[in-house]
C-alpha cells in the first residue's frame, strides 16, 4: 500500500477525470468548512483512481455506489453540476435534493447509505441481468468495514449459488470511520471470497491502465457466466471519514499523502500535469459558481399517500 | 370445496401465467415441498428460474427481490413465519419503501412480502407473531391482510398495480378455511362490499348496535362473537373486513361509523401501539362517535406454546364477546 511506487503514466483524459474528482472533493470540504453545505459528505480523496479506472469497463452495467460515492458518480457521468446541486440542495440536483450526498439514482446507478444493504440488492439486479442474457453485470462498491454486515454474506452466498454476474469492488482503505481494518475484520477478504468459492483478485497498484488490463478480463469471465467476483483494491483514504473527523495520527496521514498518486503523476511531466490540473481546477470553480447561484431545490412532492 | 390456501395458490399461478416478469423467492418453496404451508406448490415446476427456493437468508433473498423489483420485475417474497420478517426489515423499510421516493422521483417497486402470521397453532413465541403494528406508518409501504372475503387474485392485482412494496399478512389459521360460495357466510350472516372492504351482516335493514372492524384473520372469531350477541342479547353486529389495513380507506365507512351504536376494532396483535389504536385515532379525527372506540387485541405478552396458555393471551371469540357485550341487555 504505502510502498514506494513508480511515477504514474496516465492518459490525458484519465488524468483530467482524476484531477476533477480531486478538486470536486476538495471544494466540498471547503464548502462544509464555510458552512455552505448542510448534512454530511464522505469524500473519496486518495481513491479517485478506482472509479476512473473502472468507468470504461462498466459502461452499460448496473452500478451500486455507497456513502463514499462522488467519484463513482463523476467518473461515470459527465454531470458534476447535477451532483453538486444535489449535495447543496440547489435546483437541478440529480435527485431534486431529496437524496443528498449518499442517495443518488440514475437508470442503472444507485447509491444508498446503509452499509451492506446493496450487496443482496445488486445480486437481485444481477439475477435480472442474467435472465436477460445480454452479458451485463451488476457491480457494487463497498468498503472494508462493510464486511462486518451479515447482508454481505447472504448476498454473496446467493450470488455464488446462482452464479450471478455480480462484482464487488472493495475499496479497502484500511479504516472504517475511525476503526482500523485490523480491529474490525478477522481473517481476510480473500479468505472470505474463498469460503464461498468466489473468484478474487487483489489490486495494489493505483495505475489506471494496469488496473484496467488486470480487471477487464476478470469482468469478461463474469459476463460469460463465470459467477461472481470480488476485486479488492488496497487503497488510501486521504481525507477525514466525513468532515473533520479523522482519528489518525499526523504521521499516518503524512505517510498516506506521500504515497498519493497526485505527486507521483505530476513528477513524470509537471508541465502537462499542471496544465490539466489548472484546467480542472477552473472547471470545478465554474461548476461551483453556477450551482451556488441557483435557487434552492423546489417543493418536495412527498409520498403517494401525502399527495392523495 | 375451494379453500383459502387453494385460492392463494391459484392466484399465484395466475399471476405467473399473466406476468412474464414475475418472480417468487422464499425458503422451501420448491416442489415437491411447495412451501411450509404449501401455498407455492406447483410453481417451481411450471416456472423454474422465476420461482426459487433460497437459503435461510431473509435479508439476502428480500434484498435480491428488491433488486429484481428495482429493475422492473414483479416480485413476491415468502417469509416462512412472520416473526422472521424482522430479519428482512432493512431491505423492506430502508430499501424497498424508501427507494419509491427518496431519489426525488417515484420508482415503481412491485414487491409483495407474504408472511404467514398469528397464533392458535401452538407454535410458541417465535412462530406466532402478528407483525402488522410494527409496520404501520412507513411511507410507501402498504399492509394488506388475507381475508376469506377477498379473492387473492384481485388483491395481488391491486398490490402490483400500486407499485409500492406491500406486506401481505396471511393468518395461517385461514389456510384451511373454505371460501364462501356466493354471498352467504352461514345460516345467519351474509356479506357485501363497501369499496374494497367486505362487510358481514345478518340483516342490513336493522340498526347497527356494533360496528366491528376486523382484519381477515379475525373474521371467524368476530362472526362467532356477533352470533352470540345476536342470539343472547338481540344485538345487531356488522363486521367490516378491510383488505388493505394501511393506509386504511375510511371514506366508504363514514356513514356506517356515524350511525353505529358502538364501534370496535379487533385484531390478533398483542396490545400496545396497535393497528386498532391507529384506526381509532383516524376514526376520532373523522367522525364524532357516541362512545369511544372499543379496542380488542391479544394481551401484552409473548405468545405461549401450550394451547391453554396461548388461549389466555390470543384474542378469541370470547375476548371479543366480552369486550362488546357491555351495556344492559336490549
Ligand atoms: C448499517 C450501517 N451502519 C453504520 C453506518 C455508519 N457508517 C457510515 S460509513 C461507515 C464506515 C464504513 O466503512 P467502510 O465500509 O470501510 O467504508 P469507508 O468509509 O472506509 O469508505 C459507517 C460506520 C452506516 N451507514 N450503515
Walkthrough of the structure:
The complex is a heterodimer of chains A (308) and B (330). Chain A has 13 helices and 9 strands. Chain A is α/β, with parallel strands linked by helices and 308 residues long. Chain A has a 7-stranded mixed beta sheet with strand order 2-3-1-4-5-9-8, with helices on both faces. Chain A has a two-stranded antiparallel sheet with strand order 6-7. In chain A, helix 11 crosses helix 12. The longest helix of chain A is centred in the C-terminal third of the chain and has 23 residues, at 270-292. Chain A is globular. By secondary structure, chain B is α/β, with parallel strands linked by helices. Chain B starts with a helix and ends in a 6-residue tail after the last helix. Chain B has 10 helices and 13 strands. Chain B folds into 2 domains: 4-174, Thiamin diphosphate (ThDP)-binding fold, Pyr/PP domains (Rossmann fold, 3-Layer(aba) Sandwich), CATH 3.40.50; 190-324, Rossmann fold, CATH 3.40.50. The interface between A and B is large, with 43 and 38 residues. Thiamine diphosphate is lined by residues 67-68, 113-115, 143-146, 171, 173, 175-177, 237, 241 of chain A.
**In the CATH classification, which architecture of chain A applies?**
3-Layer(aba) Sandwich
CATH superfamily of the largest domain in chain B: Thiamin diphosphate (ThDP)-binding fold, Pyr/PP domains
Strand content of chain B: 15-25%
User: How much is the average pLDDT of chain A?
Assistant: 94
**What is the highest CATH level, the class of chain A?**
Alpha Beta
SSE pattern of chain A? HHEHHEEHEHEEEHHEHEHHHH
Distance between the termini of chain A: 55 Å
What do we call the CATH homologous superfamily of chain A? Answer: Thiamin diphosphate (ThDP)-binding fold, Pyr/PP domains
Point out poorly predicted stretches of chain A: 304-308
Amino acid at each position: 500500500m504505502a510502498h514506494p511506487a513508480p511515477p504514474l503514466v496516465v492518459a490525458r483524459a484519465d488524468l483530467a477525470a482524476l484531477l476533477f474528482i480531486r478538486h470536486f472533493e476538495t471544494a466540498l470540504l471547503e464548502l462544509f468548512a464555510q458552512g455552505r453545505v448542510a448534512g454530511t459528505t464522505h469524500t473519496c480523496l486518495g481513491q479517485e483512481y478506482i472509479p476512473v479506472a473502472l468507468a470504461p469497463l462498466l459502461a452499460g452495467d448496473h452500478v451500486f455506489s455507497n456513502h463514499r460515492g462522488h467519484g463513482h458518480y463523476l467518473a461515470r457521468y459527465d454531470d458534476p453540476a447535477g451532483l453538486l446541486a444535489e449535495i447543496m440542495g440547489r435546483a437541478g440536483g440529480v435527485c431534486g435534493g431529496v437524496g443528498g450526498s449518499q442517495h443518488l439514482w440514475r437508470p442503472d446507478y444507485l447509491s444508498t447509505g446503509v452499509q451492506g444493504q446493496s450487496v443482496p440488492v445488486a445480486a437481485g439486479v444481477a439475477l435480472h441481468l442474467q435472465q436477460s442474457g445480454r452479458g451485463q453485470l451488476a457491480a457494487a462498491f463497498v468498503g472494508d468495514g462493510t464486511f462486518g454486515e451479515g447482508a454481505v454474506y447472504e448476498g454473496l452466498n446467493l450470488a455464488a449459488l446462482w452464479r450471478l454476474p455480480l462484482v464487488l469492488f472493495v475499496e479497502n482503505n484500511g479504516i472504517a470511520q475511525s476503526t482500523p481494518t485490523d480491529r474490525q475484520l478477522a481473517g481476510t477478504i480473500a479468505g472470505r471470497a474463498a469460503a464461498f468459492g468466489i473468484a478474487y483478485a487483489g489490486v495494489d497498484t493505483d495505475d489506471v491502465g494496469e488496473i484496467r488490463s488486470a480487471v477487464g478480463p476478470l469482468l469478461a469471465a463474469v459476463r460469460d457466466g463465470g459467477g461472481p467476483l470480488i476485486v479488492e483494491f488496497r487503497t488510501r483514504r486521504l481525507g477525514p471519514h466525513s468532515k473533520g473527523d479523522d482519528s489518525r495520527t499526523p504521521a499516518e496521514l503524512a505517510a498516506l499523502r506521500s504515497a498519493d498518486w497526485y505527486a507521483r503523476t505530476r513528477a513524470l511531466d509537471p508541465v502537462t500535469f499542471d496544465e490539466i490540473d489548472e484546467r480542472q481546477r477552473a472547471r470545478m470553480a465554474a461548476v461551483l459558481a453556477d450551482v451556488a447561484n441557483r435557487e434552492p431545490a423546489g417543493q418536495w412532492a412527498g409520498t403517494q399517500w401525502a399527495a392523495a | 370445496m375451494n379453500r383459502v390456501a387453494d385460492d392463494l395458490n391459484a392466484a399465484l399461478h395466475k399471476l405467473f401465467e399473466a406476468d412474464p416478469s414475475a418472480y417468487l423467492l422464499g425458503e422451501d418453496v420448491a416442489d415437491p415441498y411447495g412451501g411450509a404451508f404449501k401455498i407455492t406448490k406447483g410453481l417451481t415446476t411450471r416456472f423454474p428460474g422465476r420461482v426459487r427456493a433460497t437459503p435461510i437468508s431473509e435479508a439476502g433473498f428480500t434484498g435480491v427481490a428488491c433488486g429484481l423489483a428495482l429493475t422492473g420485475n414483479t416480485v413476491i417474497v415468502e417469509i416462512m413465519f412472520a416473526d422472521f420478517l424482522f430479519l428482512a426489515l432493512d431491505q423492506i423499510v430502508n430499501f424497498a419503501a424508501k427507494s419509491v421516493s427518496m431519489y426525488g422521483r417515484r420508482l415503481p417497486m412491485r414487491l409483495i412480502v407474504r408472511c404467514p402470521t398469528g397464533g392458535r397453532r401452538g407454535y410458541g413465541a417465535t412462530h406466532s407473531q402478528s407483525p402488522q403494528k410494527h409496520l404501520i406508518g412507513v411511507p410507501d409501504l402498504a399492509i394488506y391482510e388475507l381475508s376469506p372475503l377477498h379473492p387473492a387474485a384481485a388483491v395481488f392485482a391491486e398490490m402490483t398495480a400500486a407499485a409500492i412494496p406491500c406486506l401481505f399478512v396471511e393468518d395461517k389459521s385461514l389456510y384451511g378455511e373454505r371460501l364462501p360460495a356466493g354471498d352467504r357466510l352461514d345460516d345467519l350472516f351474509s356479506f357485501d362490499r363497501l369499496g374494497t372492504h367486505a362487510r358481514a351482516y345478518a340483516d342490513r335493514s336493522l340498526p347497527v348496535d356494533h360496528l366491528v372492524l376486523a382484519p381477515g384473520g379475525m373474521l371467524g372469531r368476530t362472526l362467532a362473537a356477533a352470533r352470540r350477541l345476536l342470539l343472547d342479547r338481540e344485538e345487531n353486529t356488522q363486521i367490516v373486513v378491510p383488505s388493505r389495513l394501511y393506509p386504511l380507506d375510511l371514506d366508504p365507512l363514514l356513514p356506517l361509523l356515524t350511525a353505529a351504536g358502538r364501534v370496535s376494532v379487533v385484531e390478533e396483535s398483542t396490545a400496545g401501539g396497535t393497528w386498532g389504536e391507529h384506526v381509532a385515532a383516524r376514526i376520532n379525527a373523522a367522525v364524532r362517535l357516541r362512545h369511544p372506540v372499543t379496542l380488542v387485541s391479544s394481551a401484552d405478552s409473548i405468545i405461549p406454546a401450550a394451547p391453554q396458555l396461548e388461549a389466555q393471551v390470543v384474542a378469541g371469540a370470547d375476548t371479543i364477546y366480552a369486550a362488546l357485550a357491555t351495556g344492559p341487555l336490549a
